[in-house]
Amino acid sequence: MTAPLHYAVIFTSLRRTASEDGYAETAARMEELARAQPGFLGIESARGEDGLGITVSYWESLDAIAAWGRHAEHLLAQQSGREKWYQIYSLRVCSVMQLREFRRPCAEGSS
Amino acid sequence: MTAPLHYAVIFTSLRRTASEDGYAETAARMEELARAQPGFLGIESARGEDGLGITVSYWESLDAIAAWGRHAEHLLAQQSGREKWYQIYSLRVCSVMQLREFRRPCAEGSS
C-alpha cells in the first residue's frame, strides 16, 4: 500500500427539522474556521432536496483533522448538532489513496 | 496504522449544462448496477442548488472498487460523462480509517 495522497473527512447528515435555530450561521462559521486551520486543503458540500447533506473536507494529515476536531468553537458546534440540528449523521476519516480528475477543455465548455 | 474499516469512493462533479440528454436515466441505472456488485456496502448522493454533486459509495475492498470501475456498462457511462455531462469531476478512492455515527434516540425525534 502506497502512502496516502492526502486525507478526507466525509460528513453525511440528515437534519432533524427544517427549523434553522442558528444552523446556517454556525455552518458558515465552521467552514470559515476550517479554512483557517493548519493543514486544511479544501471543502465541498451539497444538500439535496431529500434533506441528505454531504460535506467532504480535505486535509494534509490525520493530525490536522484531529486538531480541527478538538477546536473549542468546533466542539460547541458539534454539541449543538447533536442537541438541536441532526437526526442522524456519520463521520468518516479517510486516507485518499487514488485521485482522478477530469476537466473539460475550455474550448468545449459552451459548445 | 490499523486496517481500514472499509473503503469509499468520493465522486464530486459539476454538470456541464442542465440539459438531461440521458443523464438522469443513466445515473439511476448506475446506482442500480452498483448496488448489485460484489462488495457493495452503500451509496449516498446529494446535489446542491449551485450544481455541485457529491456521491459517496462504500465498498468492502479495493478489488471490488476496481471491478466496478471496469464494468462494461459503467465504462460506457463514464465515457458519456466525459463527452456530454460533466464540466469537471474528481474521483477519490479512500480507505476509511475511523467512523463515528450519531442517531437521535427515537423518543426525541419529534420533540
Main attributes?
alpha+beta, four-stranded antiparallel sheet, 3 helices, 32% helix, homodimer
General description of the model:
The structure is a homodimer of 111-residue chains. With 111 residues, chain A is α+β, with helices and mostly antiparallel strands. Helix content of chain A is 32%, strand content 40%. Chain A is built from three helices and four strands; from the N terminus they run βαββααβ. Chain A has helices spanning 23-35, 62-69, 72-85, and strands spanning 6-15, 40-47, 52-59, 86-103. Chain A has a four-stranded antiparallel sheet with strand order 2-3-1-4. Chain A is globular and about 40 Å long. The A-B interface holds A 4, 8, 10, 12, 16, 44-48, 52-54, 56, 62, 81-82, 86-104, 109 and B 4, 8, 10, 12, 16, 44-48, 52-54, 56, 62, 81-82, 86-104, 109. Strand 4 (86-103) of chain A pairs antiparallel with strand 4 (86-103) of chain B, so a sheet runs across the interface.
Cα end-to-end separation of chain A: 42 Å
Determine the strand fraction of chain A and express it as a percent band: 35-45%
Unreliable runs of chain A: none
Largest interface: A-B, 37 and 37 residues
Structural class of chain A: alpha+beta
Q: Largest sheet of chain A at a glance?
A: 4 strands, antiparallel
In DSSP terms (H or I, runs of 4 or more residues), the helix count of chain A works out at: 3
Number of strands of chain A: 4
* H/E series of chain A: EHEEHHE
Strand order of the largest sheet of chain A: 2-3-1-4
Oligomer: homodimer
Please estimate the helix content of chain A.
25-40%
Mean pLDDT of chain A: 92
Rg of chain A, nearest Å:
16 Å
Shape by Cα distribution of chain A: globular
